[in-house]
Specification:
- The complex is a heterodimer of chains A (52) and B (483).
- Chain A has 52 residues and is mainly alpha-helical.
- Helices cover 69% and strands 0% of the residues of chain A.
- Chain A contains 2 helices and no strands.
- The longest helix of chain A has 23 residues.
- Chain A is elongated.
- By secondary structure, chain B is mostly helical.
- Helix content of chain B is 76%, strand content 1%.
- Chain B is built from 22 helices and 2 strands.
- In chain B, helix 4 packs across helix 8, helix 4 packs across helix 17 and helix 8 runs parallel beside helix 21.
- Classes of the chains: A mainly alpha (52), B mainly alpha (483).
- At the A-B interface, helix 1 and helix 2 of A face helix 5, helix 12 and helix 15 of B.
Chain lengths: 52, 483
């Protein structure tokens, strides 16, 4: 349970990281957000299947 | 094009009504059947109704326009909501599902009353839902009306009338059964239409000499692929804080946690919602960004109104694409608004009416709920006619007011046995947070989201104040049943 709470909080905080790196170019910022969301989604679904 | 679009819309309305009528076969005999499908919803239906309820006209109209005008930051804002929702559904969702069927919760207010041991908490939540969700429903009606107006200038009011008629009909036919059945159709329609619009936009750009590389260069030159000036830290915080807690504060989605028939159905609901949510967010923001690339390439004039971007694209696309997307706007708005209306009605019936009335019959509970549904949709229509604010702001504003429910709800979900009797803390927490949210809304209007006090946006203060109040009064324990 604690591990999952920490993982969820870390994933949400990671979404705010770009606020400190405003000047990026190309699709870097876009891909960063998509990858964080996709990675956490994969983790969350796997944990749910095992029974959190 | 108008004839084709209206024909497709007519077919969609006819098929949806047929589904809603067929849903009556599920047998609505009690308020439990009417509001939470008798706790018997399968995984796919649960997922589609969760997704279609969550993703409203806000996405295909509001977020497209937001991405168009503010750039990639809009994706970060929307995916922050998505990640936080996945975390809540994974960590606390299974527990809420289990408790709901053990304790026979129907409305989210009833859940709070039961956990804190006082009906006053549920009543406070029901009143807050009534106040906060009318602008959100108004945003849905506005989405449909804007789409009508772009298709047929001057038909804004007719759009409002169509929206009201469909919402009332599909909600009242079989309660949540008809809502869930039509949501499944509407969810599939929404994703198919957004994909089609994206494919058309990519091919239209390519045929005009704007490939992926050119689009990237054009967007980059305007800084739209990095955080634009719009996305100052306090603005990003002001927009995201209310939505991080959306899954715990908005009754229409909290109630959906009660409905899956077994743990497998619950897991399937979360997994399918995840696939839908991530894909839909990416598609919708790409549409907005590529539309902006078209503007920068001189293919489109600069569209100043955020809510007018999708309607403008519709007028450019061929009748096939236009009719599909136009109908998907109606689908997205209807599926969200009817779920909210039903959910708020369940709270009004279970947490206000049943507390005041003496042993109301099941039939009476459903009749009162149906009346509340009709009234809510009528009020939402009035908000739409008044044309207050743009869709994104109206949507997030509702969640900012509901944010005051987040600390009390999360505390109860995390430690359900320990909060019993601590209703004074919950009530005070909701009252303090809601007072700040409502006062700020009255003073600043939709700008309440981004207004800062001592550097912190108003939603941040709602969260801090309601959390501090809950913690300060947490040691106070009163007897169960007192209010």
């Amino acid at each position: 349970m604690l591990r999952d709470i920490v993982a969820g909080v870390v994933a949400v905080l990671l979404m705010y990281v770009p606020l400190g790196f405003r000047d990026v170019h190309g699709w870097t910022l876009y891909l960063y957000w998509v990858l964080v969301a996709a990675a956490y989604t994969g983790y969350a679904i796997a944990r749910l299947r095992r029974g959190v | 094009m108008i004839a084709v679009t209206l024909t497709v819309l007519g077919l969609y309305l006819a098929f949806g009504t047929l589904l809603a009528v067929l849903a009556r076969r599920a047998g609505v005999r009690s308020s439990v059947d009417y509001y939470v499908a008798g706790y018997k919803l399968g995984g796919f239906l649960a997922a589609m109704t969760y997704a279609a309820t969550t993703y409203s006209a806000f996405m295909i109209v509001g977020l497209v326009g937001f991405a168009y005008s503010t750039g990639a930051g809009s994706l970060g804002f929307e995916l922050t909501y998505f990640v936080a929702t996945m975390a809540l559904l994974t960590v606390l969702g299974p527990r809420v599902w289990e408790l709901a069927r053990k304790r026979k919760w129907v409305s989210p207010g009833e859940m709070l009353s039961d956990l804190y041991g006082s009906k006053a908490v549920g009543a406070a939540a029901a009143i807050l839902y009534l106040v906060a969700l009318i602008p959100y429903m108004g945003a849905q009606v506005k989405g449909i009306a804007e789409a009508f107006d772009s298709l047929l200038p001057g038909s804004y009011t007719a759009g409002v009338a169509v929206a009201v008629a469909v919402m009332v009909l599909w909600t009242l036919l079989a309660g949540v059964w008809s809502v869930a059945a039509t949501d499944a159709m509407q969810g599939l329609w929404m994703i198919a239409a957004s994909l089609t619009l994206l494919a058309w936009l990519v091919s239209w750009l390519a045929s005009n000499g704007v490939g992926f590389h050119e689009a990237t260069t054009l967007l980059d030159a305007k800084g739209l692929l990095s955080l634009t000036g719009f996305w100052a830290p306090h603005v990003f915080l002001g927009f995201t804080i209310p939505w991080i807690f959306f899954a715990a504060t908005n009754p229409q989605v909290v109630q959906r946690l009660f409905m899956p028939r077994d743990p497998t159905a619950f897991r399937r609901m979360v997994a399918w919602f995840a696939v839908f949510g991530l894909a839909y967010t990416v598609i919708v923001t790409l549409i907005g960004l590529l539309a902006r690339a078209a503007t920068e390439a001189g293919l489109l004039p600069l569209i100043k109104s955020k809510d007018a971007v999708t309607p403008t694209l519709i007028t450019l696309a061929g009748p096939g694409v236009a009719s599909l997307v136009f109908t998907s706007i109606v689908a997205a708005a209807v599926s969200t608004a009817d779920s909210i209306a039903l959910s708020v009605a369940s709270s009004v019936v279970r947490d206000l009416y049943m507390v005041a009335a003496r042993r109301p019959s099941e039939r009476m509970q459903i009749a009162v709920g149906a009346t509340v549904v009709a009234l809510l949709i009528a009020l939402a229509a009035l908000v739409a006619v008044a044309r207050v604010g743009f869709i994104v702001a109206l949507s997030v504003l509702s969640s900012a007011i509901l944010l005051s429910l987040a600390p009390a709800t999360l505390m109860a979900w995390a430690a359900p046995g320990r909060v019993e009797g601590r209703w004074p803390a919950a009530l005070a927490s909701i009252a303090v947070g809601a007072s700040i949210g409502l006062t700020a809304t009255a003073v600043y209007g939709v700008k309440a989201l981004t207004t800062t006090w001592l550097g912190l946006p108003v939603p941040g203060w709602v969260l801090v104040a309601s959390t501090a109040t809950l913690l300060a009064l947490y040691p106070v324990r009163a007897s169960r049943g007192a209010s």
